[in-house]
Amino acid sequence: PKHDIEIVHYRFIIIGQGLNGVATSILMTTPPAVSKTWFLATERTTATAVSALSCAVGAATAFLFGKQKS
């Protein structure tokens, strides 16, 4: 029945959101840790900003240049 399919879809959405939350929390805490370890105090702000924005720039590039469905 249609109701069973909706429950399965809902569960996949919840699992996907949970995985996204875990991955995001790891990805967003990595740039400050890397900049603290590898860069001088005067360079940390720039290093953190560039590193944090690289994920968004990569996603935007994938949307712009990715294969288009027809």
Q: Would you give an account of this structure?
A:
- With 70 residues, the chain is mostly helical.
- It is built from two helices and no strands.
- It has helices at 2-38, 44-65.
- Helix 1 (2-38) runs antiparallel to helix 2 (44-65).
- The protein is elongated and about 60 Å long.
- The model has no long low-confidence stretch (mean pLDDT 87).
Quick structural gist:
The chain is an all-alpha fold.
Q: What keywords describe this structure?
A:
mainly alpha, 70 residues, 84% helix, 2 helices
Furnish the topology, listing elements before pairings:
Elements: H1 2-38, H2 44-65
Helix pairs in contact: 1-2
Described by strand count, sense and barrel closure, the largest sheet is:
none
The value of Rg in angstroms is: 18 Å
Apparent shape: elongated
- The stretches of 5 or more residues where confidence is low (pLDDT under 50) are none
